[in-house]
Amino acid sequence: MKYNEDSVELKKTMVHVVVEIITYKANAVVRKTIINRPTGNITVSSFDLGEELVEKIAPFDNYIQIIEGKANMMIDDKEFVLSLGEGIIIPAHSKLKFHANEQFKMVSTMIKSGYEGF
User: Fold this and answer.
1) Does pLDDT of 6 surpass 70?
2) Homologous superfamily of 2-111 in CATH?
3) Are 10 and 21 in contact (CB under 8 A)?
4) Residue 32: which of 14, 50, 16, 54 has the closest Cα?
5) Residue 104, CA atoms < 13 Å, CB-side half-sphere
6) What is the pTM of this model?
């Protein structure tokens, strides 16, 4: 799997069409940062057909919303298929894995707890 990431945030006070923020690249998963803060981040990702995100465990809650296509995912060994417009909350410390049976794009919103005072 080829993985590309652009960590430059989007410009503030500009209107964006979320699904157009990112494109597909052959044989790759691509990720673009929308906003990144100590208390959380928002990214948009595209998965080319056949690509996978190997199992990972995040220490924070993560909300995933599909903005194009259909995503196959496993959360703690339970399979989910999310279609355009659908979302799911992935609890902190859960095992997560994605597989692209077709191309898809998603928005990920990670909420980092433990930052009292913000």
Assistant:
1) no
2) Jelly Rolls (2.60.120.10)
3) yes
4) 16
5) 27
6) 0.87
